[in-house]
Amino acid sequence: MSGLSGIGVKVESGTERPAEVFGNALPLLHEIRHALARLVEAGEPTVIDVQSIPMGPGDMQRLLDALGEGEVRAEIEALGKTVIRESRYSGVWIVEHMSGSGGVAGRFVEITWVPSLLQAQREDVEAGLEALVDALASAGN
Amino acid sequence: MNEGLYLEGMSLLDFARGPALRWAVIIFVIGIVWRLTALLLASRKQLEPTKGSATSGGIKTLLTRSAPAHELEKNIVFQHYSGYAWHIGMFVVLLFFAPHMLFFKDILGFGWPTLPNLFITFFSVVTVGILLVLLARRLMNPVLRQISTLDDYISWLIAFLPFLTGLMAFTHITFGMRYETVLALHFLSVCLLLVWFPFGKLMHAIFIWPSRYKVGAAFARRGVRA
Amino acid sequence: MAASKTVGDVLRAHGVSRRGFMKFCAATASMMALPPSMVSAVAAAIEKARRPSVIWLPFQECTGCTESLTRSHTPTVEGLIFDAISLDYHHTLQAAAGQRAEDAMHQAMEENYGNYLLLVDGSIPTEEYESHSCTNGHSHLSMLKEAAAGAAAIVSVGTCAAYGGIPKANPNPTKARGVQDLITDKAIINVPGCPPVPTVITGVLAHYLTFGTIPELDPLGRPMAFFGQNIHDRCYRRPFYERGQFAETFDDEGAKKGYCLYKLGCKGPVTYNACATLKWNEGTSWPVQSGHGCLGCSEPDFWDKGSFYRPLSAAYWGDAKTVGIGAAAGAAAGLAAAALARGKQKKAQQEEKA
Q: Cβ of C75 and A108 within 8 Å?
């Protein structure tokens, strides 16, 4: 066991390492810019699966910092928690599906008027109508 | 002799960078030492009177033969410069591409700084271009066509293949083959080069040195320009 | 055994709203490396997909693959995949044990004959070592053959099941083989890795669930969606490789700055897996990001490819002794050739004099 004590130990506090730019944040921001332009000109929405893109350490944070926070923040409880926030650029939404242990299972950037998940879904609305009709009927009109 | 390579799971790549390379190196070493020894021991009785220093003439000629004789310059200018260009390109790629350097470091025990891949790609492409032009010239020029032997063409091909397979592997332009197959072909092309080297035109890389010296020494002894 | 329900039915029975279902489909599409534009197609397919029966047979394995799977991502999404498929037999995960569990497995196999998905992890010992890996008195080779007969498709989870893995490494004391060496008449999907990236396992299952087909496979039988790219081409440290900036040892300045690990033996260029993009532990990190070169664990026989720390281009050229012997042999041949030449020379000179 004597060899173990010879191994140097360096304790790093949680301070930031000097940023080595890995480069995926910037191209993604450009892609978002193009998508936003398409939304304005043609009304065409875009969804980007950012979790599936290879990111170096810090890249994702850089992207999220660049997008920032906007006026809207919504939490959805359906099959676990999902957080939808508008970025500082209106029309650019960040959709984060949370995993049970607090991490992020899926992250999408949606460039659209309203993210599809935020809207009420037709099947749910129809089911809701039935449920309301039943509830009123049993309450005696 | 077989550290790390297990015959049962051997793929083409394992074979190429394992047994194939080992045997190629053995043949290469045997061949080089054999031919070099035979050349160095070849002799000729010196019958003429000595008119100048043999050794200094020999050493001088090692350098002077790097440039063409003044009288022949104009005739061979294209061959001369393109030859230098592709040889330089070859050495840059061979020695300063990081994975190649690591190959040699494993053999020699020491390494050296390398160049970014962009430079290597540039030099490889230029070298391949020149090689192709020189082949075309050899085929189209009537004089060259007449004096060219099988050795000339085989040596060209054997020098060309590592570049072709190397570029294919590096760029992943594999014409439908798997990357590992192309990488194996790259290793195999080097094995082929090692095996052919001692017995063909490629041996000039080693022969020119004793050859230039001997000719220079012999001419200097006679008091003529080499 | 509830295999006739559609997945849509199952989810609704779990009280999953349409919104929840769409979220599930988005996560599933992402897991299958499909673009977001395909989510509605995925939703339509999953809605109608029949709930397949799955039998998981662990063989000569370390349980790492099962561990990897149970650690995977979201209990919600991944758990849903497993609720959506009926995992009829997994002797590590299931609560039942003993003969009744075996009986349940056989019943599932009979009821779904020709339609169940067979998942295998661990290699299979063969020939005189067949008995070295058994469950309930049955050798794993016999279990594999019996289960494979009625399977719609087989998924070999982990490098051991796919290619033999660590048991097959030199000298292969149990004559272990991968599934594809033993079963040749069924569709086999190899999901190698030591262990496989958990999201990849569920992604493959999600594909089967959604489309009912085998995903497109590469020459080694691995789904192209996850194994179609090599690590080197997706590595975030690639720019350093291109610029020629390498870590020379594990604790030097280059290593601290996150330079390329090629010189430290990274097998990224010849390894195909999704680690560089999907990463491990819910996208936390992966070996290269943590500073260690790729081991190539999703490739066949990766244990026998030489040291993990030897650079890929450092080939096996022999050793100094062999070169020395070669040089000596060459010298001998050269001497003989020179002697012959001189002999000829002398003869010619004598003839000339005469």
A: no
Fold of B3-31+70-203: Fumarate Reductase Cytochrome B subunit (1.20.950)
Q: A54-99 pLDDT, tens per residue?
A: 777 788 888 999 999 999 999 988 777 889 999 999 999 999 988 6
| Option in A52, A82, A123 nearest C33 (CB) | A52
- Contact partners for chain C, using 3 or more CB pairs closer than 8 A, are A, B
Domain boundary among C198, C227, C256: C227
Distance CA(B11)–CA(C6), nearest Å, equals 44
B and A touch per CB criterion (3+ pairs under 8 A)? no
Chains with at least 3 CB pairs less than 8 angstroms from chain B: C
3-state helix, strand, coil in chain A (%, to 5): 35, 20, 45
Q: Which domain range does residue C298 map to?
A: 231-304
| Dist. CA A23–CA A32, nearest whole Å | 15
Q: From chain A, pick out residues whose CB is under 8 angstroms from the CB of C261.
A: none
Query: C99 and C238, same structural domain?
Result: no
Q: How far is B195 from chain C (nearest CA, A)?
A: 13
| Cβ-contact C102, C110 below 8 angstroms | no
pLDDT bin (cut points 50, 70, 90) of residue C216 is very high
C223 and C266 fall within a common domain: no
SS3 letters across chain B: CCCCCCHHHCCHHHHHHHHHHHHHHHHHHHHHHHHHHHHHHCCCCCCCCCCCCHHHHHHHHHHHCCCCCCCCHHHHHHHHHHHHHHHHHHHHHHHHCHHHHHHHHHHHCCCCCCCCHHHHHHHHHHHHHHHHHHHHHHHHCHHHHHHCCHHHHHHHHHHHHHHHHHHHHHHCCCCCCCHHHHHHHHHHHHHHHHHHHHHCHHHHHHHHHHHHHHHHHHHHHHCCCC
C2 lies in some domain: no
Q: Which of C77, B178, B151, C322 is nearest to A100 (CA)?
A: C77
Do the Cβ atoms of C262 and B30 come within 8 Å? Answer: no
For β-strands C188-191 and C151-157, DSSP reports them as: parallel
Q: How confident is the model at residue C2 (pLDDT cuts 50, 70, 90)?
A: very low
Residue in chain B nearest C338 by alpha carbon: B38
Per-residue pLDDT tens for B132-188? 999 999 999 999 999 999 999 999 999 999 999 999 999 999 998 999 999 999 999
* Residue C311 forms part of a structural domain: no
Query: Percent of chain B beyond pLDDT 90?
Result: 66
Chains that touch A (3 or more CB pairs under 8 A): C
Residue with tokens 């962009």: B118
C94 touches A at CB < 8 Å: no
pTM for this entry: 0.83
Do residues C75 and C155 share a domain?
A: yes
**Which has more pLDDT, B62 or A20?**
B62
Could you tell me the CATH number of the domain that includes residue C264? 4.10.480.10
Number of domains in chain C: 2
Pairing of β A46-49 and β A104-111: antiparallel
Does one domain contain both C245 and C221?
no
Mutation target to probe the B interface, by most B beta carbons within 10 A, among C222, C316, C352 is C316
Check CB contact of B14 with chain C, cutoff 8 Å: yes
- Reported in sequence order, the residue ranges of C188-301 that DSSP labels E, i.e. its strands, are 188-191
Contact C76 A79 (CB under 8 A): yes
B·C CB contacts under 8 A:
144
ipTM reported for the complex, 2 dp: 0.86
pLDDT tens digits along C64-109:
988 887 765 554 555 656 566 666 666 666 666 778 788 888 888 8
